Amino acid sequence: MVEPRPGVVSPHRVVFHSYALLVAAAVAYAAYMVPLNVNDSLKHLFFVETHDFFYIVYRDLINALGGADWRPLHLPLTQLTYKYLAQGHEHLVFKGILVACVFLTVGLFVRVLEVKSWPDVLAAAIALLVLLGHHSFGGAVEAVYPYGVEIVLLVCQFAVLNILLAREATRAGEIAAFSISVFAIVFKEMGGFVGATYILGSMLRLPGGTLRSAGALFAAYLAVVCYRFMVSPPRELLAKSAVHEYFDIVLSAAAPVLNILISDPRLGQFVTIPQAVAGKPWAIIYFTSSLLLSILILVWAWSTSRQADESYRQEHKVAVIFLVVLLGSAMFGPFSNKDYVPIVALAMYSVVSFYALRWFFAEALQVKRLAVYAVLVALAAGFSLSWSVRAAGLIYYLRQVSFAYQREWAFGLDRLARTHEFSPSITQPLIARLRPEALSPPLNHPHLVYPRMITHFMRGRDCPEACQLR
Asked: Considering the entire predicted model, what is its pTM?
């Protein structure tokens, strides 16, 4: 493939970047329109309203209570945002942060990919749909907490991957990777995979990593993990694991891995496969699209494993990182009732999907037999259509979440926001200020808005409550 001359804009990149911008804008708009969550976001706002910054830092960093969660940056950042940025414009600021993270995620993902031809454009377009259309991405943008948490981890993961895939290592890149990785693990437990990505990428000799910075980051991570277990042993998590039987432990550990690869189990139980067997269109699309793509990745890895080309060697190193992160997500199996648990592995899955799809399209163009070529074209069309439906399902899901949140604001405040734990002098003015904006404009359930045929293909993210076999 001939590289464009310096100063000449590649039409392939212009088309793909324009497409990515439009897709990101659609997702960002749908995410911005979702009201603030009641169950978690509002109780966090109550908490930061009634406690000062230094108490929150002391409570979460030094005097943690032994729960499964240890996120010493989460509430302090929420309070700083609430007190000094929002100042009465909570939806605008918190959702604005979420929207910025959506654009950063897509932008950094696009930057990782090397689009040099029209088949590359198609592969990259589908890979973007894989990232946004996989159901685990929904948890990143529904923003259970005020500004979202998982979407921040995606930004960190793609930022570190960009550093690793740079042409050469730089001191600025080392410092940035170290800072981002430490921030990620202290921000949320699953953020530890961000640093693991950089350490492993450096050990595999990806061009942007160095063993020096990887060693420093490993030492920092070791210190964080030791401090975390010394200050706050996860007694709740250990107790929860101890009461599980052997089969339940194995299933919960495998759940995050299978969630990425075959879109099941969902929310702690097998739903997609039984629904697919029952002939539900959305389940057939979810299961077959994930299964075929995962098989394609295996075929690509096997078929190119003996090729000496440097680009393939680098892609295989990224695939190794994906495998490690994916298998590592099994340690969060006790939380597998949440779809977004393997969210960092999804970032790597989408990148590796691009590599596999690009190889697939390149091989298809070399086929001379008409029958084989027709089958390959059908597969390419199937990948494009199925993941387009799944990405459109994200918009459907966010509309459904908006409707559910509005019902909580209208009817479930006392039950969900734990208003009884805080003084009415704090909770009532805050609710009175936030509720009108959350309820405007009033929304109907998407089943009442979209044609029935469309909902048959887009639904499935509302499992397991609304996906029972009937």
From this structure: 0.91
